[in-house]
Amino acid sequence: MLAQEILLKRRAEILHALCSSGSGEHLEGVVDMLLAQGELGWEDYQNVLVPGRALYSNARQLLDLVYTKGADSCGLFFSAVKQVLPEEQSAGFFSSQRPSSLDDRVKPQRTATEDLLTQRPSLVCKLQGCIDGVLGALVESGHFSSTDCDGVQLPIHTPCQQ
């Protein structure tokens, strides 16, 4: 079965798995991975994770976008879901034909910005507990202003968005 068919057939289950915790962290993790792999562009990212819009609506937007991009995108989506969700939640989405792996892609040389985007998911995990310290170090080094810090620390941001 093609990854696109699986996405359509199991759409409700996927939505529930990504959103049932009430937190956007699973959805944000998947979007981060797709962005890091170049499957989503920055504009796609901003269209999916719209602040103030319901979590389920954001997740539906991602599923629609991935579906319209084709079977390869759906395969990459499932690989990202498998990495983000606990195994018992994601195991039922896959058929005997394993969707394409995120690691199967050939990686061209990248700029520093592209490297940062690629490493974003792991950086988010490492920084979640120490945002204040990181922001303080950035201000001290002159890379951030206090206004930049205030923008990051706004209460509307989730830990992943910070």
Structure description:
- The chain is mainly alpha-helical and 162 residues long.
- Helix content is 63%, strand content 0%.
- The chain contains ten helices and no strands.
- The protein has helices at 3-9, 11-19, 25-36, 42-48, 55-69, 71-84, 87-90, 112-127, 131-141, 146-152.
- Helix 2 crosses helix 5 (55-69), helix 3 (25-36) crosses helix 6 (71-84) and helix 3 runs antiparallel to helix 8.
- The radius of gyration is 17 Å and the shape is elongated.
- Residues 95-107 have low confidence and may be disordered.
- This is CARD domain-containing protein.
- Residues 1-83 form the CARD domain.
- Pfam families: CARD.
Estimate the mean pLDDT confidence. 78
**Computed Rg:** 17 Å
- Helix and strand content put the structural class at mainly alpha
Task: Report the order of strands and helices.
Answer: HHHHHHHHHH
Low-confidence stretches: 95-107
| Helix count, DSSP H or I runs of 4 or more residues | 10
Number of strands: 0
Instruction: Please estimate the helix content.
Output: 55-70%
Largest sheet: none
Separation of termini? 38 Å
Shape: elongated
Residues in β-strands, percent:
under 5%
In short:
Helix content is about 65%, strand content about 0%. It has helices at about 5-10, 10-20, 25-35, 40-50, 55-70, 70-85, 85-90, 110-125, 130-140, 145-150. Mean pLDDT is about 80; it is low at about 95-105.
